[in-house]
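> forwarded from #structure-qc
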């Protein structure tokens, strides 16, 4: 997750150990696994610093040329948001949620109209705070849209271009209870 969230950063083993809070042997084993499949690569040192004699520091960075990088990134972000951070449960707790879809950032596509789409009766200030917390945790800006069920029905009936764009866009639907009463 650290490599995915910081694709332009380079890390050395001890730094990774401190950042993820685990044992050095576990970090080395994961580096070997991730390097083996090509997800990370051994890279140039930070700021091309001059190596001191006897200092054998290896640096690693995300391999943005990895053929499945977008898919891996989307899967990890979605898993983190839904499983570890429990985004679905946190949003559901804010009110009567009829529809929740993760898009854009969460599925690895930056050209989407929004990242989170919510239909239902929800406290907007509470949702805004929750999204702010998620942005802080994920280290990225999250664009979201909230509509009441009535607004959704009206916009759908009027063939609203923004709503049509959301409905046609690739997404991961987490809650779908629009047709249920």
């Amino acid at each position: 997750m650290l490599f995915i969230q910081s694709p332009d950063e380079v890390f050395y083993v001890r730094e990774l150990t401190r950042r993820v809070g685990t044992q050095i042997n576990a970090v080395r084993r994961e580096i070997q696994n991730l390097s083996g499949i090509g997800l990370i690569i051994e890279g140039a040192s930070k700021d091309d610093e001059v190596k001191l004699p006897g200092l054998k520091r290896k640096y690693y960075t995300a391999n943005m040329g990895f053929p499945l990088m977008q898919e891996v990134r989307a899967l990890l972000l979605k898993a983190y948001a839904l499983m570890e951070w429990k985004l679905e449960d946190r949003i559901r707790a804010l009110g009567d949620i009829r529809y929740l879809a993760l898009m854009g950032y969460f599925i690895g596509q930056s050209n989407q109209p929004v990242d989170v789409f919510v239909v239902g009766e929800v406290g907007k200030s509470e949702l805004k705070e929750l999204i702010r917390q998620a942005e802080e945790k994920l280290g990225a800006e999250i664009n979201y849209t909230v509509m009441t069920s009535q607004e959704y029905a009206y916009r759908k009936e009027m063939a609203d271009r923004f709503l049509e764009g959301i409905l046609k866009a690739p997404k991961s639907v987490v809650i779908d209870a629009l047709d249920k009463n």
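QC bot note: The longest strand covers residues 95-102. Residues 69-84 form the longest helix (16 residues).
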